[in-house]
Amino acid sequence: MSKRPDEPRRRLSKWDRERQRRRILQFVIAFVIVVALVLVGFGYWDSQVKPWNQVIVKINDVEFDMRYFVNMLSIWLPGTQPHEQVYYARMVAEDIMPVYEIKRQLAAKMGVEVTEEEVRAHLIDFFDYDPEEQSEADFSKKLEENFGLTLEEVKELLVKPMALEKKMQQVIREQDYDGVFEHAKIEAILVGTEQTALEFRQKWETYGFGALTNQTGVARYYPNDDHDGWFPAGIETEAFDAYLFGGSANLNEISQPIRDTANWTRGGYWVVQVMERAGEDENITSRILAILVDSEVTAQDLHDRIAAGEDFAELAEEYSLHTTSKAEGGEMGWLDKDGLKGQFGEDNVNHLLTIDLETVTGPLYNENISKQSSYWLINVLDHKDDHLIDSDAERIVQKVFNDMVEEETAAANIQVFLEGALGEERIAWALRKANL
After folding, report:
1. In this model, does residue 19 exceed pLDDT 90?
2. Based on the structure, what is the number of domains in the chain?
3. Of 321 and 37, more confident
4. Contact 241, 370 (CB under 8 A)
5. Degrees to nearest 5, angle at CA 50 with 45 and 55
6. Are both 66 and 185 inside the same structural domain?
7. Within-domain flag for 74
8. What is the tens place of the pLDDT at every residue in 349-363?
9. The pTM is what?
10. How far apart are CA 168 and CA 162, in angstroms?
11. Phi, then psi, of 185 in degrees rounded to 5
């Protein structure tokens, strides 16, 4: 049986070919439009939607996204200069947001909550808002103009954390500081160096306490216009309390200088080694190693130990009160004349410019240098047991609360996602979106 020949394929008409071409063209155009829309949509999502959902800060298991960060910037940065805003934005992310959340978590541990009425009362007090003179609608409008946020957002981000803190402190006071406590009646003076304390002690014995309170070099004294001199434990520093309530104080006897490293004061003694010099006359600079201490006796001892062969850098790391050079073994870098004057005092500049290189100076005193160290002179006049006055209770509770927050902060897992170039981009984006 013979095979049937294939039928010849029908050839498309000109009209059919044109219609097919148009269909292909329409499909291509539609595809291009869809791709373009996808790209535009992705670009919009990537630049306008996605950033809002990026996690900026994480404290323990709680995440805070870009929206929260932007809102916090809107609260904290109005009034700042443009060149300051990146710095303050980092401060918001690295300090303020973690502390707010740690306080909230601490409140949860303590079982402390605030009611809407308590938040409102704090809002009225904080913003000096009088509901009888201004409607809530007008007040809300004013907040939106100032912060770009609604009344509820301002309450949640700013007012509620402050209300929680106040209530936690109230709870601490009611639980721990509502009874009777030992008090000491004192006269006291705080100064910057051991030598100043010894000089003032001699003047105190000769001329009386009243002759010292207006003397140059006094950082603080009691009694004063704000405090009558009756102290419970917890108002001042640990060193102060240890002397008042530790059993070593005799009534009506001026103490020997009591060292206290909790206070910042002025005045100190330097031990200096000039390592190199460059330039001449007004352009001369010197490379300096230095150790700052609060006692002339200590400075002289360090001089003698270095001269005997002990390592300058090791002694600087152990003893120096100069925070920026301490970790560098006393390395101060290259200083011009103004730098020498600022650090070591005008009276010591010429000596430092003429001393032989690598020679260790004796104690050089600068009355204006600031460091975290001080000395108390205390005279305990009397003791009594009594309830805390409100101002003392508030100061004690504030210190206790701050210590609790510091402890919680030290134990917390805090992550801030603003490092490197990506972090800079996120900050710039957030600043553009904030109401500044």
Report:
1. no
2. 2
3. 321
4. no
5. 180
6. no
7. yes
8. 999 999 999 999 999
9. 0.78
10. 10
11. -90, 125
Look at residue 45 in the predicted model and tell me its pLDDT. 41
Residue 21 domain flag? no
H helical segments located in 208-322: 238-245, 296-307, 312-319
* CA distance readout (Å), 4 to 45, 147, 320, 334, 402: 63, 88, 110, 105, 101
Among 37-46, 166-175, 338-347, the minimum mean pLDDT is found in 37-46
pLDDT, average across residues 315-338: 96
Domain C-terminal end among 385, 401, 417: 385
User: What DSSP state is assigned to residue 263?
Assistant: E
Tell me the CA distances in angstroms from 9 to 15, 20, 431, one per residue in order.
17, 17, 69
> Per-residue pLDDT for 157 more than 60?
yes
344: in domain: yes
Residue range(s) defining the domain that contains residue 416: 56-175+409-433
Distance CA 332, CA 342 (A): 12
Residues 332, 187, single domain; the answer is yes
β pairing state of 180-191 and 364-387? antiparallel
> Does 42 map to a domain?
no
Q: What does DSSP assign to residue 115?
A: -
Residue by residue, DSSP assigns 398-433 as HHHHHHHHHHHHHHS-EEE---HHHHHHHHHHHHHH
Please give the biggest Cα pair distance in the chain. Answer: 145
Query: Beta strand pairing status for 258-278 and 364-387?
Result: antiparallel
Q: Cβ distance 217 to 267 under 8 Å? A: yes
Q: Please write down the long-range contacts of 121-128, taking CB distance under 8 Å and 24 or more positions apart.
A: 121/163, 122/159, 122/162, 122/163, 122/166, 123/154, 123/155, 123/159, 126/158, 126/159, 126/162
Distance, in Å, from the CA atom of 289 to the CA atom of 283, rounded to the nearest integer, reads 20
Q: Which of 138, 65, 53 is nearest to 97 (CA)?
A: 65
Kindly report the average pLDDT of the chain as a whole number.
91
Please count the other Cβ atoms lying within 10 Å of the Cβ belonging to residue 296: 19
Give the whole-angstrom CA distance, residue 304 versus residue 158: 56
Q: How far apart are CA 208 and CA 54, in angstroms?
A: 65
Task: Return the structure tokens found at 373.
Answer: 């160290």
φ and ψ at residue 383, rounded to 5 degrees: -135, 150
